[in-house]
Amino acid sequence: MLKVAICDDEKIERESIVYMINRFLKLNNKCYKIFEFNSGEHLMSSIKNFDIYFLDIKMDKLTGIEAAKKIRLINESAVIIFITALKDYVFDAFDVNAFHYILKPVNEDKLKKILCSALKQFDKNDKYIITKTIRQSTKILLKDIMYIESKQRKLNVHTTYNIIALKPLRTLGQLLINYI
């Protein structure tokens, strides 16, 4: 599951970005969850580790650049995209290996292109297993698996976002591992 953080102190801007990202990810059948934050401090107090961060630069107390520096200390592979009205900090974005820098007002087509490029970063390296649950087949990213619990012949896969109960297995070979 793709975890996206959006941090902007302006509620209307944040909601607009959430709306655009939701539309794009739903159209592309992505499994995702979006988390909203109204300040850099609120974002940093979250215990979650996100895949993609959309950060405004100009916020009270902790700026987007300062938040990005802290993010890099705990998550070097995260995609950081700045969305701001300020051109002045574009070179500071290089210091935190930002993926992109978008100026407000956000053009939805530009955001879609950037998000599409960002998602390719995850498609290249993510290994996953395909499992059969009671109702359907499910793709689980290996990076999201915290542990697998075995109870008799049933497996529960504990992930960062939920617990997936697998239907009873005859052999572990029924888990298909994909290394593409």
Task: Give an overview in words.
The chain is an alpha/beta fold and 180 residues long. It is 32% helix and 31% strand. The chain has helices spanning 11-27, 40-44, 64-74, 90-95, 108-125; strands at 2-7, 32-37, 52-55, 79-84, 100-103, 128-132, 137-141, 145-151, 154-159, 163-165, 176-178. A five-stranded parallel β-sheet has the order 2-1-3-4-5, sandwiched between helices. Strands 7-6-11 form a three-stranded antiparallel β-sheet, with no helix packed on it. Strand 1, helix 1 and strand 2 form a beta-alpha-beta unit. It is elongated, with a radius of gyration of 18 Å.
**How far from one another are the termini?**
17 Å
Describe the strand arrangement of the main beta sheet, using strand numbers: 2-1-3-4-5
Number of H- or I-type helical stretches: 5
Q: Output the CATH class name of the largest domain.
A: Alpha Beta
Task: Name the average pLDDT.
Answer: 86
Low-confidence sequence ranges: 176-180
Largest sheet, strands/sense/barrel: 5 strands, parallel
CATH homology-level superfamily of the largest domain: Response regulator
Q: Can you tell me the CATH topology of the largest domain? A: Rossmann fold
**Number of discrete domains:** 2
Indicate the overall shape.
Answer: elongated
CATH architecture of the largest domain: 3-Layer(aba) Sandwich
Q: Whole-number radius of gyration?
A: 18 Å
- Assign a percent range to the helix content: 25-40%
Q: Into which percentage range does the β-strand content fall? A: 25-35%
Number of strands: 11
Q: What is the string of helix and strand elements? A: EHEHEHEHEHEEEEEE
Structural class computed from helices and strand pairing: alpha/beta
